[in-house]
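Appendix B, example 12.
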Amino acid sequence: MAMSTAPDRKRDAYASPGQSERRPQVLLLDPDPDRAALRTEWLRDGGYDVTHVVTSESAVERIPRMSDLDLVVCDPSPTAKTGSGVDIVRASKSIRPTVPVLAIVGRSNISPPLGLLRGSPDATLIEPIGRAALLSRVGLLVWRNGSGGGRGGGEHTVLAIGAHPDDVEIGVGGTLLRHAAAGDRIILLLMTDGEAGGNKRQRVAEAEHAAEYLNATLVRTGLPDTFLSEARRAVLVMEDVVAHYHPTVVYVHSCHDSHQDHRGTYNAAVVAAREVPEVYCYQSPSSTVEFAPNRFTDVGPHLDAKVEMIR
């Protein structure tokens, strides 16, 4: 992820997440021994203790006995080997309602089983998945649940500002996933609903889903799309958000951008966030060749999750 700093903003935006003595506990339901062995290896390398079972009955038996259980990972599709996947999701929510459930579903099973389960698992991944996607999603679920031996509680409050729905997710989504994994609080400020670029209701719904993915707070200003060059109104809105949430890090568009709303958002943010310790400008698809990044962050472990969030 390439970024440039706003004038006179040079400090590093990240701190190393604290280490925990207790490894989060994951219950993995998977009837395929080779696949289960690989995912168990990934999870253990990622800092988790894994208990593997091959049937729904075994999972239901284990769930109440694991007092420190942090996450259940399963394929909710019914099979002859595991029994009803629907039953394991429901059973987990009934026995341990505060423990999140991650469903991993094959593409052939997306419909109708996934549709029937929508709202039951806390998150869904669609096969095939890699190590990075699995660890990124598991880390977010464990942190959201407030468990994992202190993986939450990051030191930053992050304010990411976008002129339209999808600006933040495309421009700095991987970095925000990195912040989320570190336990930082995330605020997404959406300056317009993007009504000039598509269906307003759909674009707002997509922004809401992306915020849920990040466990972020979404703030919408409802300012008119394509008219953000009126700086005063935008500045006042941003100042209210900054005063309310007290961010320590801000991400915003660059002034080197061919879209007038992006430039207007940048100009307003430089004023509104003048007392925020760290302000960074992110690259957009509409950034011009004058955008000169001087800071880079490694979002490789979160790249698959960023792509899924954008979808």
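Residues 167-181 form the longest helix (15 residues). The longest strand covers residues 185-192.
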